[in-house]
Amino acid sequence: MDAQSLGMLAILGGGFGVGLWYIVARGDANLTMRQGMNPEGLRYGTGEPGFGNAKLQINAKLAVVEERRRARDIARGRQAQLDAERNVQKQAAERSAKDVAENAREAERLRLAAIAEAQAEADLEAQRAEDEAERRRREREEGRLAEARLAQIEQMEAERQSELAAAEAARLDEIQTARDAEAVQSKQAAQAAMKDLQARLDREGARSSDVQVSLMWNNFNDLDLHIVCPSGERIHGGNKISKCGGELDVDANVRPESKKPVENVYWPEGTAPAGKYQVYVHHYKKHKKRRAKDPTKFQVIINSLSDEDNDGVPDVMEYKAALSHGDPIMLVATFEVPSMAERRRRKQAIEDQLAALERGEDVDVSPLATPQDTSAESTELLNELNERLQREGADSSFELPSAPDLDKLSDADSNGN
């Protein structure tokens, strides 16, 4: 406790002691001893108020103090309310002033923006005018340069065309030279093939005629030649002499006997029935003892009357391809033999053309032969061939082959040789 509190405590304690001494020491004090206490407590004989009245006075004073405190609190609350209202009014005024200032600033900003936009628009318009003038100047300059370039290009194009014409003439000369050389090589190869074929046919004692199909290859494997006649009959190793007049007179390498075998089917002169013929090649057997390798390349040479360019002179067609053992039977070629009436008609047409040429007339010298085609009839015949081959003991199952690209195979064979 501080000194002031101690002093007050001492003063109050001293006063309390003096009061007790005064009460006891007074001679005129009349104490009324009753059971219990009355509201006044101890009473003095003098009739002066006791502790009860003091309490009432204290309570009254406390009530006054409390009332004053309440009045003060109410006053403070009112003052605070007034202060709050003044603050609200002040803040509202400040906000209003701020809004006014902000509006003023926004108006100024808009004014400046409008001025800047007007200035930018003016600058843009000036730039557009300048760009337009520059564009026109460039167009005039580009037009002048384009005319100069066009003149230069025309001159260069004329020179290039002249060079191209010279190069094209040289290229055509080279192509013609190459064609001539190729024709000579092709003719030599055809002559060599025909010479080789004739040697093999002579070796085997085969016969030749106006309609003849020959197959030759260069290993010990067993390839079979199949010819389907217009009647649908098939000529092969199991049916060498056919009802349509054709005969397979050479069937090679049933046993691995020759490395340069040949097979041959012919019709006696003038007996081949008119109609479409189909030529197939089947790789029947690979003779392992001779170690013949696959694929086996082969050639088919056809003498027929399908495209006569002279009176009764047969056309020779050569086809090259390759087969491996187990490959499906291959449709190599088709050709047509005209009827005797057609042959006479063609002969008469050729004689008429020759007579017209002798008279100096213009005639159409287009080929008289009809183009060959492959139809669904070929598919049916091929299926029938596969079924017959299976019945005859062939050790492979066959499917309908797509038409071979004999030109590519021929080119590959030529490159390989």
Side-by-side strand order of the widest sheet: 4-5-1-7-8
What is the chain-wise order of helices and strands?
A: HHEEEEEEEEEHHH
Helix content estimate: 40-55%
Distance between the termini: 133 Å
What value does the average pLDDT take? 79
Query: Unreliable stretches, pLDDT < 50, 5 or more residues?
Result: 31-37, 39-45, 308-313, 365-375, 394-417
Q: Shape from CA axes?
A: elongated
Short description:
With 417 residues, this protein is of the alpha+beta class. It has helices spanning 3-25, 51-204, 340-358, 376-391, 406-416, and strands at residues 211-217, 222-228, 234-235, 247-250, 262-267, 275-285, 296-304, 315-323, 330-337. It has a domain at 209-416.
Secondary-structure map:
Elements: H1 3-25, H2 51-204, E1 211-217, E2 222-228, E3 234-235, E4 247-250, E5 262-267, E6 275-285, E7 296-304, E8 315-323, E9 330-337, H3 340-358, H4 376-391, H5 406-416
Antiparallel strand pairs: 1-5, 1-7, 2-3, 2-6, 4-5, 6-9, 7-8
What does this structure look like?
It is built from 5 helices and 9 strands. By secondary structure, the chain is of the alpha+beta class. It has a domain at 209-416.
List keywords for this structure.
9 strands, four-stranded antiparallel beta sheet, alpha+beta, elongated, 15% strand
